[in-house]
Structure prediction request, 393 residues.
Amino acid sequence: MSELDPANLGAAYRAVRAHTEALAAPLSAEDACAQSMPDASPAKWHLAHTTWFFETFVLERVEPGFTPHAAAYRVLFNSYYNAVGDKHPRPQRGLLTRPSLDEVKAYRAAVDRRLLALMPQLPQDALRLVELGLHHEQQHQELLLTDVLHLFSCNPLKPAYRAAETASSAPASPLQWHAVEEGVVHIGHDGQGFAFDNESPRHAVFLQRYEIASRLVTNAEYAGFIEADGYREPSLWLSDGWDWVRAQSREHPLYWQRKAHDGWQSFGLSGLQDLQAHEPALHLSYYEADAYARWAGARLPTEAEWEHAAITCPELRQLTSHAWQWTSSAYLPYPGFQASAGAVGEYNGKFMVNQMVLRGGSLATPPTHLRSTYRNFFPTHATWQFTGIRLAR
Prediction:
């Protein structure tokens, strides 16, 4: 494991923290405080929690004469770290009208000043916690966008978070199948550069011969599944998925709605827009992805298949730029996995149950946060993330 350079890490710290501020800049204080559902968090909470991470896991350990910025923040902005202590209930984060947004911004600035002043003299173990904190903040940058999108979708005004980009008129490329021969392959992080603990250790996996799709499933293709009564055919759905469809009265993806006369619209970060037929279908649950794959005469790839193909098939498109891609793999530890010591060991390991692995990256993922070994994970019913489908067979 190579040593981290304090100067380079300090520059990265400034860049990541500034990007979070830029993402929050279009939001009013009212926008930043609201919580649209228990799975989402207010933007103000994201701003504070990412700062809490650096204060709690770095400053508290290394700063001489450490005193907290505000003692109450230790509970208010703890997410799920039981070893740290009490937590404010997640479904009630939207009730935190105090501290104000300005006070949270002041908290961020104060922690930044204190940490950057210490950066040149931090030991390697503390620098690695800073590095972890930056990748943690990049995760919250994506969550901030997905949570704001869900919040704005609940508003009858259908406000736009950002201006619409010029839509491409180019059709989707024809779907092709890329064959991968059977054999023993190695997956997992090789130890070069940053990775979360759940990406290790690197290990051997035997793969049967398989084929993987050259691109993601498009809106037009998914609309075909809807028009073929895919949401009304129980034989296409897992038992839990069919129960979910019926309980939710689900007939189409989250954020889709029928136009008054013909076709579809979808709500995105640029507001309500006509559905772009050639763009990848987004905001799909694992249940929807699995049902579509079955309808299409295919299946979802395993995470090992996805990772191996991402490395060995240069022809694959949309690997990291559009949607997190569901795999058929349950989120479980790799052989020999060991969680990090201390409270940061709660980061990933304790969630290795009742979740499915997603691979790739999305339009909301910071580019410097991406790598082929990244293991994202969500429960099977999650739809508010930028999730899509790559088929295998």
